[in-house]
Amino acid sequence: MEPFQTHKGKVVSINRSDIDTDVIIPQQFLKRIERDGFGRFLMYSWRYDSKGNPVENFPLNDPESSDSTILLTGRNFGCGSSRENAVWALQDYGFKVIIASSFANIFKINSSKNGILLIELPEEKIEKLIQLSKEHKDYELTVDLEKQELADNDGRKMAFSVDPLVRKKLLLGVDDISMVLEYEKAIEEFEQKRPFYASPVRG
């Protein structure tokens, strides 16, 4: 996992709430063995009609949004089943940051494991950002995880807060196992002081 300190990217907004994981990656595409390649199936049932033609007014089908890396969306994003493939699809499509007023808990865990930064903001700030993204062509945000701050093209700034442990993992680019190994020496010292914890259980 690559370290995440700052990221500047174009914003695309999907102003809907309760977007569940079955919408993010429909179940008919879950049979893939490979982890990559899910991006082309992202929100497939919304991006394409029953004949496989692109839905013209869907935000992700707008050519100007094709290189967006920051997704702006409604509350309770990622609800539904706990499929990690949903995060893979978003990441493979190119999203590095998702901003919403709330996220489903399991989706939060899966995102932090895969290096996607989730930012929660009050709904009124989400609405303001959505408005700005529609008013300004090529609307961009700079995300500074170290400072926990957003800044747009015109210098508007917003503070955000990320769970300290998640923030540390993303800044360092490490996974859960690597975080545990940071405390390997302390764990060994604990075990040496309490050898009876490691004693075999006799039947």
Brief overview, please?
Its EC number is 4.2.1.33. This protein has 203 residues and is of the alpha/beta class.
Radius of gyration, in angstroms, nearest whole number: 20 Å
CATH topology: Aconitase, domain 4
Provide the structure class: alpha/beta
By CATH, the superfamily comes out as: Aconitase, domain 4
Helix content bin: 25-40%
What is the string of helix and strand elements?
Answer: EHHEHEHEHEEEHHH
Largest sheet: 7 strands, mixed
Task: Report the sheet-strand fraction.
Answer: 15-25%
How many individual β-strands? 7
Tally of helical segments = 8
What do the pLDDT scores average to? 91
CATH class category: Alpha Beta
Low-confidence stretches: none
Topology:
Blueprint lengths: L5 E9 L6 H4 L19 H4 L22 E4 L11 H9 L3 E4 L4 H10 L2 E4 L2 H13 L4 E5 L4 E4 L4 E3 L4 H9 L3 H6 L2 H10 L10
Catalytic activity: (2R,3S)-3-isopropylmalate = (2S)-2-isopropylmalate
EC number: 4.2.1.33
Organism: Rossellomorea vietnamensis
Describe the fold and architecture:
The chain has helices spanning 21-24, 44-47, 85-93, 105-114, 123-135, 164-172, 176-181, 184-193, and strands at residues 6-14, 70-73, 97-100, 117-120, 140-144, 149-152, 157-159. It is an alpha/beta fold and 203 residues long. It has a single domain (6-174), classed as Alpha-Beta Barrel (Aconitase, domain 4), CATH 3.20.19.10. It has a 7-stranded mixed sheet, sandwiched between helices. α3 packs across α4 (105-114). It starts with 5 loop residues before the first strand and ends in a 10-residue tail after the last helix. It comes from Rossellomorea vietnamensis. One of its GO terms (biological process) is L-leucine biosynthetic process.
